[in-house]
Amino acid sequence: MPSVIATLFFFCALAIGWWMGRRSLSRPREASETHLRSRVHSMHNLLERHSDDALESLSQGLVVSPETLESHLHVGNLFRRRGDIEKAIHIHQELLGRAGEDGSLVAQVRLELARDYIAGGLLGSAEELLDELTQQRDEPISLEALDEQRLICEREKNWSRAIELASRLVASRPELSAALANYYCELAQEKGRTGDRSAMQELLREARRVDKRCVRALLMRLDCELWRKDQVAAVATVGELASDAKAFLGEIVPLLRRHDGLARPELLACLRGLAAGEEVPPAILALLAQNELPAGASGWRESLLERVERHPSWQGVGEYLEVVGNDGEKDSAAGKIAPIIIGLYKTMPRYRCGKCGFAGRELHWQCPSCHAWNALRPVISPL
Questions:
Q1: Which pLDDT belongs to residue 368?
Q2: Averaged pLDDT for residues 25-29
Q3: Which of 156, 175, 203 corresponds to the end of one domain?
Q4: Most buried residue, 7, 78, 286, 303, by most Cβ within 10 Å?
Q5: Contact 241/201 with Cβ under 8 angstroms?
Q6: Across all residues in the chain, what is the average pLDDT?
Q7: Within-domain flag for 210
Q8: How far apart are CA 263 and CA 261, in angstroms?
Q9: Can you tell me the distance from the alpha carbon of 125 to that of 146, in angstroms, rounded to the nearest whole number?
């Protein structure tokens, strides 16, 4: 009974909408279209609050036309978002049979059906539909289909194909430059694992060409330069990081530790120069304090303590306590509390996504939650 009442309610709402639409014909065209969009948006908000049975009844009762297509697709998409992929596919397949010969309507329905297949893991069926849609003369639809193919390649880690598709899209969608640069980095990583360092470096150059803000490419390039002991190039790359991505400067520390970078005078001099700056990350001061000779180490400890006093943060406190280590009396109150603070520091999130708020200890170049590229940044947690 509730579903019958809900269905009657929706048909009444549609009848009122039709009548208001007829009235709006006498209004200026721009005002009429704005009013129509507002009514459609309001109706979609109502749809989201009703049961699956009422939604399906509404979809079956509505005539398929350019004016009602958005509502039909919205009903199917609601089922997809609710996780009922089978019903979403059923609705969109029915729409295909009712769309007639209108090529534009058919293309839009086929695109949503392909998205249903992707959500259901039926990637082969989705790719067949998308291949056909990319040949459409309707440019917006063909671009949407290309983008869905790109996402499938990203999901399957087919980076060469993802680069090809993203390169075709980036001119009309500049926001894809971050994704494209990361595809080059992913492929470079694969080349590095096979020992093809030359191809790896070429791909990293391409990554920086398409996205000058690609920090990942700089860090991977620095890793290569440290591996082949090219101190001059490594110093230049560190300088680029300090200039273009100061927030990520602390990420060079694990690379320097892995390749024993401080054993090389040019890199040591470069780090000392960075440490003189006001915004140097505590991790760099801690690295110098741990690796300098005893005479110089105390100076860097003092610099680290001054940095923490000027800009108090959990990161700075944690780094300082790890540097001083066993210097204090273990039985004193400070000696007992230090390991607790270090333990707390090691459990705190180090990175946060600027788009969805995901936080974690590891640096992910693609957010595990919202899947945005280059969205995670180091967190500075003030005391």
A1: 93
A2: 46
A3: 156
A4: 286
A5: no
A6: 79
A7: no
A8: 5
A9: 15
Question: Where would I find the H helices in 103-138?
Answer: 103-119, 123-133
Q: What is the pLDDT of residues 45-91, one digit of tens each?
A: 444 444 444 555 555 544 555 556 666 677 777 777 777 778 878 77
- Is 23 buried (19+), middle (13-18) or exposed (0-12) by CB count in 10 A? exposed
Residue 140 and residue 105 share a domain: yes
Distance, in Å, from the CA atom of 119 to the CA atom of 83, rounded to the nearest integer, reads 9
Of 156, 174, 195, which marks where a domain is finished? 156
Strand partners, 373: 366
- Give the number of domains in the chain: 4
The Cα 122–Cα 308 span in angstroms is 53
Phi, psi of 160 (to 5 degrees): -65, -45
List Cα–Cα distances, 314 to 77, 261, 311, 341, in angstroms.
45, 26, 10, 9
Task: Mark whether 69 and 105 lie in a shared domain.
Answer: yes
Looking at the structure, do residues 304 and 250 belong to the same domain, yes or no? Answer: no
As a whole number, mean pLDDT of residues 330-341 equals 69
Find the Cα–Cα–Cα–Cα dihedral 181, 183, 184, 188, rounded to 10°.
140
Per the structure block, which two tokens stand in for 164?
């090809």
Per DSSP, the chain holds a count of helices (H) and strands (E) of: 19, 3
CATH number at residue 79: 1.25.40.10
Quick check: is 109 in a domain?
yes
Instruction: Specify whether 327 is located in the same domain as 357.
Output: no
Digit-coded pLDDT (tens) for 189-217? 999 999 898 999 999 999 999 999 999 99
In the predicted model, what is the mean pLDDT of residues 106-135? 85
Lowest mean pLDDT among 31-45, 67-81, 113-127: 31-45
Residues 170-184 have a mean pLDDT of 94
Cα separation of 57 and 76, whole Å?
A: 12
Amino acid 333: pLDDT:
63
Q: Which amino acid is at 271?
A: L
Domain extent for 261: 220-274
Examine the domain organization and report whether 90 and 151 are in the same domain: yes
Do 146 and 85 belong to one domain?
A: yes
Q: Are residues 89 and 114 in the same domain?
A: yes
Q: Domain check: are 81 and 137 in the same one? A: yes
